[in-house]
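Re: folding output
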Amino acid sequence: MYEKISFVVSGRVQGVCFRAYAQEAARASDVTGWIRNRADARVEGEAYAERDDLERFISWLRQGSPHGHVDHVDLSRFEPVEERPPTFGIRY
């Protein structure tokens, strides 16, 4: 079973390679899902992983990329799921 979250990150998170760094952090923590920019200058996505791996990724989301600044992370948690996407991708 995998934990599932959706997230919306606000702050200086576009134009600072946030999505690429998030993809790297997800892969390092065995997190799958997706991330994309929103028209309102925030970033959103979904993530799936075992609990400890997902918590590590959430900690990264709160910190953000080296050149950005995270003001707030809105998280929604869902019931555990049996299947998850095979990778963590950037959506355009």
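--- second protein (sequence, then structure) ---
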Amino acid sequence: MEKDSKTEKLERIYCQNEDKELQQLLENNLDHLLPGDQISPGQNLRWLLVKREMPVVNAASGEPGLSIDFLLVDQYGVPTLVECKRQKDGRARREVVGQILEYAASGRNYWSAAEFLRYARTTAGDESKLLEKLKELTEGSDTPEDFFSRVAQNLKDYKIRCILFLEGSPLELRNIVEFLNGQMKDIELLIVEARLYQQGNSRIVVPWVFGFTEEARAAKRESKAETVRASVEKGEDSFWEGANDALGEEEGSVDQLREFIAALAEIPSCELTWLKSCTVSLPAVVPGKIILGLRRDGSLELYLDRWRPLQGVELTREQSDARDAFLMGIESLFGIPLSKMRESMTYRLISAKKWLPRADELRALIEKVASFSSLITNHEAEVFF
């Protein structure tokens, strides 16, 4: 503004290349161009990029062949799909709504916590960088496994956010989005209109959020509160409270889970950490990494991927023996083919009904693997870092 209080009108401009201008602009300015305080007043949402061009399975063929422009998550673990469209793209009208909802429906059926974690790690650069980003995002002590398990659970529970990131949004598109948003309790559908202006040699981008009426906000208020509560309740007391809620009707299950965890705590080199789940580590065998987690619903998550060493580094014979003992024991207990475990080395979930009856055998297996710690020196163990 000049001293005489006169203002200068900015020239509205439009991008010519969606990828180089609109998408890269968004990727480099996520927190500014997807204003969390406008999207969810009072929460000041922040974002973590999981993947650009996230693969989407075509329901008709069962094969990946589509992709969503951005898959993000906020600090509460809500998966957020973002589709970008230029002003001149004819799909930036009604068709884009059906497109993003189709992608969300496919993602709910096919995406997994392990897939989210793998892509997020690659996008961040490596595991240590992902840990830093997650710590900054959540301001808490979630492990990546816990966090992305929550993302997958939110997806399963239809707690999804879909954002249309557009240069301009016609009135009929806003009407459709507001109408659908008012009818959906958990799913959020929004438009963020990125208005580009030119001032001299500089470009100015002003984001405008459309899609929320006060009626829609009221309808989603309890769902949002539930999501926030689920993201912040950590620790042993909260774990058992959740376990009692989830397993209370299954006679003896909570007691069996308590006995199993208490037995693990007695293994000298076994460490338990209470976050959203109870995680189990054998730091003298696999330093700095979790080998399994116990969820509040009683399910057991095997972090097979955590047995991988650093790229280009070989396991010692003792570490290979420890890993093989663990994998063969899991194969014997739960019938998971060893060949498949060796091929995928990913994260596997086993229901409480399947593993609790064999809890004593699983404890004995963990104790056996822990015993390899006496054969592994600290230097040898470093290959897992």
